[in-house]
C-alpha cells in the first residue's frame, strides 16, 4: 500500500541515505540495509526530482515547497502538486525520505 | 507519473556510467588498509606479521583515511575496495567502514574470513558492504594450512564463512592457484561455485613482494605453477579459454589502429581508478610500486596525485632493445600477464620482459592455435 502524503507535513531526506551529484546526476546511495527493494541498486532522480530533492531539508512543509515550485516552473498549481505528491509517495515508499511531522 | 521522477536501477545498468565512458573520472579507489595479516600465506606479496610495529606505525590513521576518501569522493569516486593485508585486523575497521559508507561510497571488503565474528555479521547486516570477497586456499585443512602456515586457520575460515552465509550475507569466493593447492583446484572450484554468490575466478599468477624480500620471493617463485599447469587449469574452464581467445587482439591485425608501442603503459591506467597503500602512497595500480609512479599522500593531496602523475605515466616510453624486440610489438601481448608494474616487481625495471610470463603467453597461443608464424620467442 502506498504511503499517504500530507501537504501540511514536513519531509526530509533520510539520514540512512547519502545523495551525491555526479556529472549532473543525483545518485542516492543507501547507507543501511532495508532501503529500496534490493541492495544491489542505486537511485537517481530526473531534473525535476532533483530540484525537489534539494528542497527536502526538513525546514518547510510540502505546501510551502509546492508554492516555491509553482514560482520556479511557472506551471499550474494542480499539476505541480500532483507531481510532487507522486514523487514523494515513491520516495517515502522506498524509505529515501522521512515524514518529520510523524515524529 | 512518479516513475518519471525517480528510478532505481541495478548497478550495472545505472545510467550514470554512460556519461562517464569517455571521460577521465575517478570512479573507484582501492584502500590497502594494512599490510599486516594474521595468516602467513607462502604466496602472499604483501603480508607482514599481525604484530609488526613498524608496519602498524606507518599505517594511515583514521583522519588521514577520511581526508583521502573525501578527496576521492569529490573527484567522483563511488566504489571503495578495502584490501590488505587483512583489513579486519585493524581495531578501527568498523569506524572507517562506517565513515566510508556515510560519504556515499559502495564499499567492498577483501578478507581471508578467519576473523569474522558475530559482531562483524551484525555490523554487515546493518551496513551492507557492496561485496565481501574471500580467497579459498584449499578445501581441506591440510592444503589450506599448508599455504597459510597457521594451525586452526582452516576451521576459522569455514566458521567465518558459515557465519556470513547463515545470516544471508553474500560472499564472493575466489582462488589463487599454486603448487600447494594445484591438486585440489577442481574441488576448490566446486566449493566456490556452491557457496559463492558470483562467478568463480582463479588467478594462476603469483606476483612478487612489494617489499622485495628475497627469501619470501623465493617461496613465491617455488609456488608458481608451470606454464603447462596454468594451461591445464585454463583448459578445464572453457569460458576462461574463450575469454583468452577474445583477448587475442594483435597489434598488427588488419583494421586495428597501431598503438604507440614505445609507450610502456598500454592499459587503461589512470582513467578511472587508483590505489592507496597502507602507508599512504598513491598509485594508479596496486602492483605499481616504482618510485617514479607513486605519490606520497601524507605530504600531498589525492587531487594533486590524480592530476600530476597521470600525464607522467602515460608518457613513459622505452626504446630499450630487449623491450622493443620482445614486448613492444609482441603480437600475443594480450595473452601475456606482462605489464610494467609486474615487470618492475620481477626485474626492477618497468620495461624488461619476464620470461615466465612470456613462456606462458606462448603456451597459451599454442593452445589457442595462434598461427606460429606470427610470433616467436626471442628471450634467451
Task: Specify the number of helices of chain B.
Answer: 15
Radius of gyration of chain A, rounded? 13 Å
Percent of residues of chain B in helical segments? 25-40%
* Classification by helices and strands of chain A: alpha+beta
Total DSSP helices of chain A? 3
Number of domains in the coordinates of chain A?
A: 1
**CATH topology call of the domain at 24-225 in chain B:** TIM Barrel
Question: What average pLDDT do the residues of chain A reach?
Answer: 87
Strand order of the largest sheet of chain A: 5-1-6
Helix/strand/pairing category of chain B: alpha/beta
Indicate the proportion of strand residues of chain B: 5-15%
The CATH architecture of the domain at 24-225 in chain B can be named as Alpha-Beta Barrel
Count of individual beta strands of chain B: 12
Q: What does it look like?
A:
- The complex is a heterodimer of chains A (about 100) and B (about 375).
- Chain A has about 100 residues and is an alpha+beta fold.
- Chain A has one domain (about 10-100): Arc Repressor Mutant, subunit A, CATH 1.10.10.
- Chain A contains 3 helices and 6 strands, in the order ββββαβααβ.
- In chain A, the strands form 2 sheets. Chain A has a 3-stranded antiparallel β-sheet.
- In chain A, helix 2 packs across helix 3 (about 75-95).
- Chain B has helices at about 15-20, 55-60, 60-75, 95-100, 120-125, 140-150, 155-165, 185-195, 215-225, 225-235, 240-245, 300-315, 320-330, 340-345, 355-365, and strands at about 5-10, 30, 35, 50, 80-85, 105-110, 130-135, 170-175, 200-205, 275, 280-285, 295.
- Chain B has a domain at about 25-225: TIM Barrel (Alpha-Beta Barrel), CATH 3.20.20.
- In chain B, helix 4 (about 95-100) links the parallel strand 5 and strand 6.
- Chain B has a 9-stranded mixed β-sheet, covered by helices on one side. A two-stranded parallel sheet of chain B has the order 3-4.
- Chain B has about 375 residues and is α/β, with parallel strands linked by helices.
- At the A-B interface, strand 2, strand 3, strand 4, helix 1 and helix 3 of A face strand 1 and helix 1 of B.
